[in-house]
Amino acid sequence: MHYPNPLNDKRMNATVSLESIWNLIQSLSPDNQKWLADKVYEEIGQKKAHKELVFPHIPANRELSPEVKNMVEDRLPVDIDIERETEKMWEEWAK
Fold it and tell me: How many helices (H) and strands (E) are present in the chain, helices listed first?
C-alpha cells in the first residue's frame, strides 16, 4: 500500500518529538523503513553536495606575517605531497 508523502506537503506544519518519530519509524514495515532511509540519505547527500565554500577576503596589498614568511622562505621537504597538502588546506578553510 502506498501512502501520500507528507514530506512533499508544504502545508504540514507540526511539531513532534524525535521519540515520536522514532516510534513511527519502528512501526513501519522493513520496506517502508528502507524507503525512508534511502530518502534521508539522498537528502543528506544533496545538502552536502550544495555546500558552498566561503573563502576569507585577503587584501592584495596585505603584508605577509613573520610566521607565514618563515613557512615559505625555506625550501619544501622533498617528500611532501603538495596536492594532498593543498586539498587538506582547502578542507580546513571550508569548515
Answer: 4, 0
User: Is residue 15 situated within a structural domain?
Assistant: yes
Domain annotation covers residue 58: no
Residue 55 in 3-state DSSP? coil
Instruction: Count structural domains, the chain.
Output: 1
Q: Grid coordinates 605577509 are at which residue?
A: 64
What are 32-67's pLDDT values in tens digits? 999 999 999 898 887 777 677 777 787 778 887 777
Task: Tell how far CA 90 is from the center of its chain.
Answer: 14
Are 55 and 93 in contact, with CB atoms under 8 Å apart? yes
Other Cβ atoms closer than 10 A to 17: 8
> Residue 2 above 60 pLDDT?
no
What range defines the domain where residue 39 resides? Answer: 6-49
